[in-house]
Design brief:
Elements (H helix, E strand, L loop, with lengths): L9 E9 L5 E10 L8 H6 L8 E6 L26 E11 L9 H21 L2 H16 L8 H24 L3 H14 L4 H13 L3 H14 L4 H14 L6
Antiparallel strand pairs: 1-2, 1-4, 3-4
């Protein structure tokens, strides 16, 4: 009984997940998440909003809506690994629906965990070819990393926060490119370089994007700096060679 979850509301569910042979691979007596935030597999993202509090549902999820082609290797022995391309049967009990929480100050370690979790969900969506969902997860990861903290991070935590932000911004750029949004991709690269001016991945992509816009001088600067950092990179050599040939076309006889 009661209304189904609305967009932005937080839910608590009890989850059991089993393979076709009946082996349990998921067991969580109280999983809390906001549908749409990319924190759980797609089967739960799509299925739980159809439920009412107190309802028990079974979702048979094909592997694209579970753990995809690669499956899942667990970091602990609590649950076994999920094999590649494994369909799963989920038994889900919707325990509670609440209004979404306001951003709360979190310890740096929790911000790091949430940021990493959401970025990994973004990578999962990217691998499936769902680039809009990947971008949404990457942005949520950045929101967690940039959120208010209960205490200033220590030097090691600050460095890890910085590294995760740069990874996330690079991933945002890749997703934006897949969605055909070159300007947004360039903005993400430049945001990454403001944090880490010598990030090779961001420099290479920035050079490629600037070259596509015809800004050859700026593109060459970015690509040459990337080459200084990684002289053996074939991708950078290829981009610089392409740019040089365009700037100096062979003369015709």
């Amino acid at each position: 009984g009661g209304p189904r979850p609305l967009p932005g509301q937080e839910v608590s569910v009890k989850v059991l997940g089993a393979l076709e042979d009946g082996g349990l691979v998921e067991r969580d007596p109280r999983l809390i998440f906001v549908p749409g935030h990319g924190d759980v597999v797609q089967a739960l993202e799509l299925g739980v909003p159809t439920m009412q509090p107190g309802e028990v549902s079974f979702f048979l999820a094909g592997f694209p809506y579970a753990y995809g082609h690669p499956g899942s290797r667990r970091c602990t022995t609590r649950d076994p690994d999920v094999p590649p391309e494994a369909p799963l049967l989920f038994e889900v009990t919707l325990l509670e629906v609440r209004d979404g929480p306001d951003p709360q100050p979190l310890p740096p370690a929790v911000r790091l965990r949430l940021g990493s979790q959401r970025r990994e969900r973004g990578n999962f969506h990217f691998a499936r070819g769902d680039f809009a969902a990947a971008l949404r997860s990457y942005r949520l990861s950045l929101r967690a990393l940039d959120g208010p903290a209960t205490a200033p991070p220590g030097p090691e935590e600050e460095e890890e926060l910085r590294e995760q932000r740069v990874k996330c911004l690079n991933n945002c750029a890749a997703a934006e490119l897949k969605l055909g949004r070159a300007e947004e991709a360039l903005a993400a690269c430049e945001a990454a370089l403001r944090i880490s001016p010598d990030n090779g991945r961001a420099l290479l992509r920035r050079g490629q994007l600037l070259a596509e816009q015809g800004r050859d001088a700026d593109a060459a600067l970015a690509l040459r700096r990337a080459l200084e950092l990684d002289p053996a990179s074939k991708a950078i050599h290829t981009e610089l060679s392409r740019l040089t040939k365009r700037q100096n076309p062979p003369s015709s006889t």
